[in-house]
Prior knowledge:
Layout: E1 7-30, E2 33-48, E3 51-56, E4 59-64, E5 70-82, E6 84-93, E7 102-105, E8 127-137, E9 140-142, E10 145-147, E11 152-155
Antiparallel strand pairs: 1-2, 1-3, 1-8, 2-5, 3-4, 4-11, 5-9, 5-10, 6-7, 6-8
Amino acid sequence: MRLAEGVWTLNSPRLVLLGGVFRGVVTVESAAGPKRLLEFTARSVEVEDLDLEVRQTIGTWHLQAAPGTTSTIVGNSVTLYAEMLVGTFTTTGQGAAPPGDRVTVTPSNIPSWLFNPVAAPSDSASRTITIKNAAVSQISLTRASLTIPRAHVRMGSPSARPRG
């Protein structure tokens, strides 16, 4: 896999990985050279009020869902790669509970409650991972289909969100 050019950031008041498993840290190629990323798999992902921001040299673009909607990411097994996740985490299923505070997770800062190694190919370590007020940077998705209700694209700052 090679990362797309630009910096991709997903912002959402609530991001949910259903059947989520943290797979560890992987190294992938980017235009700037190798990058270490967090790898998650999930049965599906739900994103409230999706705002996918892409910063490139020509400007910042936003792919947004209509306010008050939930976008979905589905596939046989959705794989999400991220350089950083920031938000308030909650989980259900196996493993220790997160602290309840806003947390920043990076390849060099992985909290013990998140790392639940998968011993077998089964998803015995899967759980629902919810991130409130989520910001996920350098995001990449594979083996997935994204559905965005009433999607629109605009160029500009993150605060200028159209209504309806």
